[in-house]
Amino acid sequence: MAAGAPAERPQPALTPPARRSPGFLSKMAAPSGRSGRRLWAALVPAALLCLAARAAEEPSTADFDVRPGGEVHSFSRSLGDYTCTFTYSAQGGTNEQWQMNIGVSEDNLLFSCSVWRPQGKSYLFFTQFKAEVKGAKIEYAMAYSQAAVGGQSDVPLKQEEFEITETTVSHREGKFRFELSKLMIVAKTPRDEL
């Protein structure tokens, strides 16, 4: 053999010639005939259901507008058995784009929800807010007047400005100073209580 000449690749000795033929592969790729159609008719819907169920459990991020005007508005997202709803009323300025991120831990023990303004600081004057989870109980929650962006740090609200229950984080009437840019919730799912 000359130097630099490509070496011929012999077929593996353990593979019978019939299995290397294109006809063999097409016969193995999909069942045919009446029983094959029934098998496909059963497998395809089952596979689609599995894919849909798996897709429903992937973390989700959704954009929404926080609208001033003094009216109460809500934005909600669900993931499997869990729902996060952000309800608020705000004044001043114009619409701001916010995001809601929800996710479930790989072991299905924790559900998380964060609501925030990606630009960091909101310039709206919030008269009220509440984030509520359904299907899980809050383990940890925090509210911030400023979200960490571009070298800035999260600035938490004072503990007296908001309250946390088993399922909600909300403003505390008479104590909340009308600034909100971010809410974070981590909740235990019922699977943890088994």
Low-confidence stretches: 9-32, 35-56
β-strand number: 11
Helix content bin: 10-25%
The quaternary state of the protein chains shown equals: single chain
Binned strand content = 35-45%
Helix- and strand-based class? alpha+beta
Main pleated-sheet profile: 6 strands, antiparallel
Mean of all residue-level pLDDT scores: 80
N-to-C span: 69 Å
- Sheet with most strands: strand arrangement: 1-4-5-11-7-8
Count of helical segments? Answer: 2
Following the backbone from N to C, one meets helices and strands in this order, namely HHEEEEEEEEEEE
Shape: globular
Instruction: State Rg.
Output: 27 Å
Please describe the topology of this protein:
Blueprint lengths: L21 H8 L3 H24 L3 E7 L6 E7 L2 E10 L4 E9 L5 E7 L8 E10 L2 E10 L8 E2 L5 E3 L3 E4 L10 E7 L6
Description:
It is a single chain. By secondary structure, this protein is of the alpha+beta class. The protein has helices at residues 22-29, 33-56, and strands at residues 60-66, 73-79, 82-91, 96-104, 110-116, 125-134, 137-146, 155-156, 162-164, 168-171, 182-188. A hairpin with a 5-residue loop joins strand 4 and strand 5 (110-116).
